[in-house]
Specification:
3-stranded antiparallel β-sheet, 11 strands, 5-stranded antiparallel β-sheet, mainly beta, 4% helix, binds FE2/S2 (inorganic) cluster, 158 residues
């Protein structure tokens, strides 16, 4: 117990200061990760779902095309941390204007991931940087969101 160490000190003395915390080393920057050919992502169509490691836990992410651009987010609702899609790859509402959570109907703006209505409040989806280059789509790993290591089980499905 912590009090035992303090009790062992001579009367009137102060315990030594704890060692300063050192930040954990940042993982090395990884190259962008290939997802698919650009032609696979139709305007406001079905998303491509892919596995990532988010804070070292398996998770799912998705990329879709909206207003000509590819956008990618972690597949996790702000309201309750659960996956959003109605069926694998189906994220948009019937009007194809919002990313709609299948659980309680939170609506997110596909352009920026911000909550546009429903129980997501002031929250926004966690953006994953997606880029198109020479007819291919890639995502950019960060220190927190990285490719799922080989052999690690993907996140359970919706
Ligand atoms: S879990 Fe998404 S709106 Fe409640």
């Amino acid at each position: 117990m912590a009090d035992d160490a303090a009790d062992a000190l001579p009367p009137g003395s102060t315990p030594p200061a704890p060692a300063p915390l050192r930040p954990l080393p940042r993982p090395p920057k990884l190259p962008r990760q290939h997802l698919c050919a650009s032609g696979q992502l139709e305007e406001k169509g079905r998303a491509l779902v892919f596995d990532v490691s988010h804070f070292r836990e398996p998770a799912r992410a998705f990329v879709l095309r909206f207003e000509g651009r590819v956008v990618a987010y972690l597949n996790r609702c702000v309201h309750v941390p659960t996956e959003l899609d109605w069926q694998p790859g189906v994220f948009l509402d019937s009007g194809r204007e919002f990313i709609l959570c299948s659980i309680h109907g939170a609506a997110y703006d596909p352009r920026n991931g911000r909550c546009a209505g429903g129980p997501c409040g002031q929250g926004k989806l966690l953006r994953i940087e997606a880029v198109e280059d020479a007819g291919q789509v890639y995502w950019e790993p960060t220190a927190d969101t990285r490719p799922l290591p080989p052999g690690q089980a993907p996140a359970p499905g919706p």
